[in-house]
Amino acid sequence: MRSKILFFGLIAVFVFFTVWLAGIEPDGALKEFVVRYGYFSFLAVAFLGGLNLIFPSIHLAFIVPLLNAGLELWVLVVLGAVGITLADGIGYGIGHSGGDVFGFLKRARNWGENFVAKYPRLTPLIIVGWASFMPVPNEVFVIPAGLVRYGFWRTISFTFLGNLIFNIIALNFGNLFVIL
User: Fold this and answer.
1) Residue 108's domain spans which residues?
2) What digits encode the pLDDT tens for the residues 116-126?
């Protein structure tokens, strides 16, 4: 019963933030919040962007104004990676608690466990590569990782590394548009 409550609670949070972020225009209140509160707001927006499927990596929309405001690029890189990785932890929790809720996921869980057992060295490369270069939310792999009980810290550390690489690439590209 507890796992069902946790699973549906996490799904509700996920859906709420997705709908909420879909209604916010980047030039409105969210932009004002990000520019006004700097580093903290960038971390918060990276976290919220990591929680949803509609606007993944929404924090990147604010990189040029923040860099123009004088914030440090490398601090923003790390904060962006931390924010998205924190959200990925919630996705992992959804997968971890969801395996007991739905019986039809047992087949997917068995497939994932067999894949991880058969290719133990390939799994981390897939996680880092996906988080680094795919412009698709990380929930595509962190939820299944939770489902197959692939270690939480292992998943989060590889996801963080991938998010760090992604943010280095994306924020350095945004740095090209900063007014000197």
Assistant:
1) 2-175
2) 888 888 888 88
